[in-house]
Amino acid sequence: MMYQGGIAKFDPRTEKLTTWSLPAAVNIDAAQVNMVSPQHSDVDGKVWTQNNGFAGIHRLDLASGAIETIEPFRDAPKGEPHNIYDVVPDSKNNAYFTDFRQRHIGRIDAKTGEVKLYAAPTPASAPRRGTMDANDRLWFAEYRANRVAMFDTRKEKFKEWPMPTPWTAPYDVVLDKNGQAWTGSMSTDRVVRLDPDSGSTVEYLLPHETNIRRVFVDNSTTPVSFWVGSNHGASIVKLEPLD
Fold first, then answer.
1. What mean pLDDT comes out for the span 27-40?
2. Phi and psi dihedrals of 3, rounded to 5?
3. Would you tell me how many other CB atoms lie within 10 Å of the CB of residue 109?
4. How do residues 114-172 score in pLDDT, each as one tens digit?
5. Do the Cβ atoms of 226 and 172 come closer than 8 Å?
6. CA 112, CA 13: separation in Å to the nearest integer?
7. Which of 239, 154, 152, 163 has its CA nearest to residue 204?
8. How many Cβ atoms from other residues are within 10 Å of residue 19's Cβ?
9. C-alpha distances in angstroms, 179 versus 174, 215, 236?
10. Cα–Cα distance between 173 and 130 in angstroms, integer?
């Protein structure tokens, strides 16, 4: 609940809506709660989200309704900018987050609360949205570096791949069932399919201005299908590769 300082869950089976509000101390005017991530709440009954108002991360305990707050950059030098853009849990419900104003991927240990920061190879790369694959590898866009990147959370190692067209500025990344990574450009209206093993890419130029944001892959089709919302066209775009 972005500007209401809360988190919501809708159960389509019961049609019940449940909401939780941030504690008063952090429910400030600047609060902006984004990117609710319940993917692995089955592990410990906790749900992660982030707060764009002050570079904070919240964790909701579904059993008690309590919300705790972690501020990874509380002790950063005064004036040093940070923007936690996304928070993505791994299979053990540890939280990984992207620092869009810098180059870092952060980790919050689900059991101890310990925070670690990992610097991506390219400075000022602006890590943005991403997804965790089945092997706990975080795939994310390096918006200002014009790259797609992967952080292997088990080996604690990065890998980066450049986009074929300058100023692509990838926004989001998702891996398909064949191990291909898909992303899209906010500015060039191109969809990019990356083969991480060879580094080769295929570009698909969309027929009209789209302004690509979050991307999706349908693995039930052969070949896989790519879906994206068209922010500038009030429509949904489906891409079907020919190979």
1. 94
2. -105, 10
3. 12
4. 999 999 999 999 999 989 999 999 999 999 999 999 999 999 999 999 999 999 999 99
5. no
6. 35
7. 239
8. 11
9. 10, 16, 24
10. 5
Q: What are the residues whose beta carbons fall under 8 Å from the beta carbon of 11, sequence distance 6 or more?
A: 17, 18
Distance separating alpha carbons of residues 124 and 118, to the nearest angstrom: 13
Report the C-alpha gap between 82 and 47 in whole angstroms: 22
DSSP H or E stretch at residue 49 = strand 46-51
Closest CA to 233 of 214, 208, 213, 216: 208
Summarised one tens digit per residue, pLDDT across range 191-238 is 999 999 999 999 999 988 998 999 999 999 999 999 999 988 899 999
| Total Cβ atoms within 10 A of residue 39 | 16
100 burial level (CB within 10 Å; 0-12, 13-18, 19+) = buried
Alpha helices in the chain (DSSP H): 41-44
Single-letter amino acid, residue 38: P
Q: Alpha helices of 22-131 — where are they, by DSSP H?
A: 41-44
